[in-house]
UniProtKB/TrEMBL annotation, chains A, B:
This is CoA-disulfide reductase. It comes from Microbacterium keratanolyticum. The keyword Flavoprotein applies. Pfam families: Pyr_redox_2, Pyr_redox_dim, Rhodanese. Its cofactor is FAD. Keywords: FAD, Flavoprotein, Oxidoreductase, Redox-active center. The keyword Flavoprotein applies. Residues 472-558 form the Rhodanese domain. Belongs to the class-III pyridine nucleotide-disulfide oxidoreductase family. GO terms for molecular function: oxidoreductase activity.
Length: 562, 562
């Protein structure tokens, strides 16, 4: 408990900067040094794609703080353009290289905080004569990209490799700048954390925005001829964005002997402490604990970095006697996330069906397609919602929500419920704010809860779109309970159309054996299942109705939209 | 347990219709009769003001179901234009009057569900030659109002009496129709569930929309000369909307000897059962249990009515052996609500500071003014937020959120957290979906949690705007830690301006005694308090900063905006 402890923080963006400013508010006397490899601290990394697209017009608005402003308000010693190249844990020192001069100095620490972030797993080599290849993670990156864009004449052509969050933001913003954009995706669809029938909505949007989408494809080389794909195609390009995955930037930590976890991230305890008690770590460089599996996981979100950075400051201050109460351990991570795709909000929390299935985790699946606010009030937009539920505990395992309005609200409510330990059925009981321009008297969240409750009480039984073929092979018949006019606009091949309103009177027309009932979104199907089961028939509802079935089956083939 | 039980439901809108359709899905054999006094069932009562304003252009879109559509899908016997005038509980019968013919019939029930709603407490008498005086609760009301509006020539003048939810929606929509609108409010400000410094934001919006607002005023008479106020003013009017409060429509229930509660609503148990085991009640006619006080309360929200209607159906089906599990008791009500006021969303849940103070309930108050999404992304709108916290348990007692974007999301997340029993500090740990167009890496919700955590841990101490004068009388000095240019644009009279960034170097200039520190919204004030307290000074942060102080003090005088 020194009167003036010396804290060195490596990395000056989300987690590092939250630790620095919180620590100053708790300890006016600490010496706090922030070492940042880049030329900027506390910049708006989530805004970078939108600056490229011109949505954020001023470069200055990305720069939230400067070393000068942080010195004035928080008495921080911020050293940009400096890199920590080594840690001597025994001596409690770091080697700091001034990247302009190349000169190394050695700095002592009482506590060290590693906020080194993530780095691209690999980057395509820049070949002579080839289009510029850039990642999109730093101010330097966007300076390079905007320089390339400013040099273009006519309609430029961009290839984005990797349809994750940053990849999709790059696609949208390059299109917004007027470029013809191709998105190359290794997997079956963009946004691999989504299940295919949900990603299908994103694919439809990309199509309608004239994005050239190539799924189940990889880049084999980038040279003066263009971008070569493994299907033999070569794409002409003026700019290539490499938006493939990232990994924890943990090399300096590893070289100093700090323990890494199974994911490759720095292993920390609930106080963000590494295997060395004087060294903490935070942000994309560290492992989190997954809420569903309670296993180590990687979640690269700024919100977690900020919160965990604050925790580190609290722990250091508590150990210095400046806080009375032991700081609480970090709560598990859910991976709650959202990305905008041409005005469509695509949001998720927890685990997907795919991930649960791969892990052999029992799960119940619920799809719903309600509108974001009362249908009779102008401007209502359809939501595409999915809820994953543990059938034994009724706890929420995950959710996906997509829509042009109100999706961010619904994922946040579900994420809050999930983190608070509410059951899926309890979503029915949430008293949410309703007026016709903001929601419905039965909010979409309540609707998910009502469906979950029907499952938990055995009042309904459903089948998923990807289980339909097997059920039909086993003798089940598909009954389309929509109106005749809906049926005529398109339905499931081989289905029989009897409107739910005619079901009681036309019951004799139904085939023998199991009945798979469906409507457009699942609601009338539920009523039909209730009628049929009370009349002694074996019936299940096709979950999410025709919309979910159509979306899911559309993703079975590679997407090629040249 | 009859094979075909006879269920009579009195009232065919939210709660009654939810009970009817749910019961049919659970019991194909029940005879379900819905008696509705009006000519319409299941109409969009929350949409009525917007139809008056022309925002909802088609009258048909208000009519969600018809007796015919409900017969086809749910085999319901819906009788509109019929009123239940008496209940004979001994005989298990109701007297039903056909309102067109005046003929009474007597109908037997096995179970009776009262969903009679609310009615206006009193209505101004319609005097010869006076402008039409209307409430705004039924299709008949809007037909009457639109007929009056269609007959107007030139700019019409409307007077709305009562600034509750429907009153404000009436004001907005009549203005939208081109009328000059006066709002007469008995209390100090519209929306009495809000605290004054929050209502101040609503008042500013009404002012900017040229609404003539008269607070602390009542109507003494409405006659051919106009609307007479108790301050001697007479307002010319072509239309008067009486939007004063409602009360439970419980007269038939009371006449039959059913127990009413202390609020005047029908008393029910957790299964919505009245004091007669064969009679249930739901919706605005019944009492709820308040989540904060656990006492009976009135909350007139459609969402609760729908959910409780479903519960009644579950209970009836369970008693018939059609559901295995005993339905869960109703959860307490929080009064979560939202209203749109000229594009401003005004949302609340739980108790206000005023209500807590009046009840002598210990409480901690937190104000914050964050923007709804990352400030560097275009279109960010300021939120005005207030959180009420139990200082002993850290549980959330209530919240108010106002803003042009993102307010509905934030109130729903807080309401969910409150209903799930999260503490205020736990809001800091919520992992919410972040991208720059949807939120912030430290979401406004997280910010409230961080402030709450600072209070719980003793890291900060604050003072409310209405406590400032007393503190100054006791010798405290006000230090404005904003920049000089902010200070020049307006501050608290008698305050001393020293920017937070200069505080360390200018510490000697501070007066002796307690220091009340403030900035614009409270954040820099917190940093300043931390500096001052570590330097040995007695300092508190003016909660919510200058914005909250200015809003609160502005509501101390009657509002008159002629």
């Amino acid at each position: 408990m020194s009167k003036s402890m010396r804290v060195i923080i490596v990395g000056g963006v989300a987690g590092g900067m939250s630790a620095a400013t919180r620590l100053r508010r708790l300890d006016e006397n600490a010496e706090i040094i922030v070492i940042e490899r880049g030329d900027y601290v506390s910049f708006a990394n989530c805004g970078l794609p939108y600056y490229v697209g011109g949505v954020i017009p001023e470069r200055e608005s990305l720069l939230l703080q400067t070393p000068q402003s942080l010195r004035a308000r928080f008495a921080l010693d911020v050293r940009v353009g400096h890199e920590v190249t080594a840690i001597d844990r025994e001596a409690q020192t770091v080697t700091v290289r001034d990247l302009r001069t190349g000169i190394d100095t050695v700095e002592h620490y009482d506590a060290l905080i590693l906020a080194t972030g993530a780095s691209s797993r690999e980057i395509y080599p820049q070949v002579d004569g080839a289009a510029p290849v850039a990642t999109l993670r730093t101010i330097d990156d966007v300076d390079r990209i905007t320089a390339a864009l400013d040099g273009l004449t006519g309609t430029g052509r961009a290839v984005v490799v990797g349809g994750g969050f940053i990849g999709l933001e790059a696609v949208e913003n390059l299109a917004h700048r007027g470029l013809a954009v191709t998105l190359v995706q290794h997997g079956a669809h963009p946004l691999s954390p989504l299940d295919p029938e949900m990603a299908s909505v994103v694919v439809d949007t990309l199509r309608s925005e004239d994005v050239d989408l190539r799924t189940r494809t990889t880049v084999t080389a980038i040279d003066a001829d263009g971008v070569h794909l493994d299907d033999g195609t070569t794409l002409a390009a003026d700019l290539v964005i490499d938006a493939r995955g990232v990994q924890p930037a943990a090399s300096v930590a590893a070289a100093s002997g700090l323990r890494l976890g199974p994911t490759g991230g720095i292993a920390v305890d609930g106080h963000q402490r590494t295997s060395d008690p004087r060294i903490f770590a935070v942000g994309d460089a560290v492992e989190k604990i997954d809420q569903v599996s309670e296993e180590p996981t990687l979640v690269t979100m700024a919100g977690l970095a900020n919160r965990h950075g604050r925790t580190i400051a609290d722990v250091i201050a508590w150990e210095s006697g400046l806080l009375d109460e032991r700081p609480q351990d970090a709560t598990p991570a859910t991976g709650t996330a959202i990305v905008g795709v041409f005005g469509l909000a695509v949001a998720m929390t927890g685990w997907s069906e795919k991930r649960l299935r791969d892990a052999g985790w029992p799960h119940r699946v619920i799809h719903a397609h309600p509108v974001d606010h009362a249908a009779y009030y102008p401007g209502a937009e359809r939501l595409t919602m999915k809820l994953l539920v543990d059938p034994d505990t009724d706890l929420i395992l995950g959710a996906q929500v997509i829509g042009r309005a109100g999706a961010d609200k619904r994922i946040d409510v579900i994420a809050t419920a999930m983190q608070a330990g509410l059951t899926a059925s309890q979503l029915a009981r949430l008293e949410l704010a309703y007026a016709p321009q903001y929601g419905s008297a039965k909010d979409p969240i309540n609707m998910l809860g009502y469906i979950a409750d029907n499952h938990a009480s055995g009042t309904t039984d459903s089948i998923q779109w990807h289980e339909l073929d097997a059920a039909r092979d086993a003798g089940a018949s598909v009954i389309d309970v929509r109106s005749a006019s809906e049926y005529e606009r398109g339905g499931i091949p081989g289905s029989l159309n009897i409107s739910v309103d005619d079901l009681r009177s036309r019951i004799a027309e139904l085939p023998e054996g199991e009945l798979i009932v469906h409507c457009q979104v699942g609601q009338r199907g539920h009523t039909a299942v209730r009628i049929l089961r009370q009349l002694g028939r074996d019936a299940r509802n096709l979950d999410g109705g025709y919309l979910t079935w159509r979306a899911g089956t559309a993703m079975r083939e590679p997407v090629l939209t040249p």
